Amino acid sequence: MAESETEPVISVGRMRLMAVIIATALFMQNLDSTVIATALPAMARSFHAPPLHMSVALTSYLISLSVFIPASGWVADHFGARQVFRIAIVIFTLASVACGMAPGLGFLVAARVVQGLGGAMMLPVGRLVLLRSVSRAQMVAAMSWLTMPALVGPILGPPLGGFIVTYFSWRWVFDINVPIGIIGVIAVSLFIPDSREAGRGGRLDVWGLILTGFAMAAMMAGFETAGRGLVPLSWTLGALAAGAGAVGVYLLHMRRHPQPVLDFALLRIPTFASSVVAGSLFRIAVGALPFLLPLMLQLGFGKSPMQSGLITFASAAGALAMKPAAQPLLRRFGFRTVLMLNGFIAALFIMVCASFQPGWPPLVLDGILLLGGFFRSLQFTAFNTIAYGDIPRAQMSAATSLYSTIQQLTLTLGIVVGATTLELSAQWHHHAVAMQSDYAMGFIVVGLFSLMAVPFCARLHPSAGEALSGHHG
């Protein structure tokens, strides 16, 4: 951090209030991303559409999210982070209302695309609002709240969606966003400061946005269809190849543009690069868990969606229990030690899920998932905080755009890794449907991805992130 930079100073109470407001809005987005999965069969019956075709309601949102995230930093710089965040909540909420009123699949897909636009601005810009409002010494405490939506939302989404569809209507799945959105807009207007920094000026990198948007859309489409039999394999491979090609063209374009929409030059900052590389491996594992766990509990162990949801909720409870512990642990041991040791423990708890058996008492499963949720949440907080530890404030918007784009890709890639491992293991063992041994292989594979992040964490300097944690080794 440059010595000349001045940092905002706000009270601890104000910082926590801001973090909770922003985290609540992000929780709405993360919950919505998963809650509709269990509502798809009911939606298919309502629209008289084949259930398999309903997956477009998921992919259209994810692709829209991926296309617009790269532009979020430039938009926040030009129109103000608070203003953009507030408008993003409005767009997301109104699009949710449209989704709930959809008369057919085409209308629903169009509304989901608009919803993705709002979501694309909420995630990075919400994080940017908080980063610009707190000092570096407050970042650990603030970011520990922002890890909650990514960890709790995917866990609560499926059982909540099942409850709503069972006892009410699938349209209520979208309507639950309305009160949260209204409260969020009011809270942002009253309590979030309109902080502005001298960021990236000039015109939007239109060609860069087109290239990154196409690359993200193609790769997300490829990831979403990989191993699921939704489209021919050649289509999936073609989408991934087209996305990779667009990335290559963008890298050439980036070298000639003074202010590219995604600035990969930020990877020259060691703490940011380590968080991107190691954090991506870790997020692949975390992205697979909300996919593997409910499937194993429901299809493998024969539990109901509600029983499965009550068991997986233990992970969310562990994540919540982590918040007061993050700052003391990082202050005592430092980022490098925590990321190495905690990363190793978090990977082991993921692989322990491979040993789950249908006859195990629910309390045993809950205990393992609770502890695993604690360590994963601590790892998330550490990665998401140190990523911005050495970023100059003028480049915060560029950093949040790049980090959020990579984050979205790797979380989706986690589902692909989990699904592909299940499919390959079932074929190898000649299982008509996935068995316990196949789910075990899935947990081991994604756990190994998490474990591969540890050596990259070891490359951090022992003093990395001292200004954030207060640790002096």
UniProtKB/TrEMBL annotation:
UniProt topology in membrane: Multi-pass membrane protein
Superkingdom field: Bacteria
InterPro entries to which the protein is assigned, alphabetical: MFS, MFS_dom, MFS_trans_sf
PROSITE patterns reported for this sequence: MFS (PS50850)
Main location: membrane
Cell compartment(s), UniProt: Cell membrane
Listed transmembrane segments: 17-40, 52-75, 87-110, 116-134, 146-170, 176-192, 204-223, 235-253, 265-286, 306-326, 338-357, 400-419, 439-458
Record keywords, A-Z: Cell membrane, Membrane, Transmembrane, Transmembrane helix, Transport
Sequence ranges assigned to domain Major facilitator superfamily (MFS) profile in this UniProt record: 18-465
Pfam family, one: MFS_1
Stated name of the protein: MFS transporter
Protein's organism: Acidocella aquatica
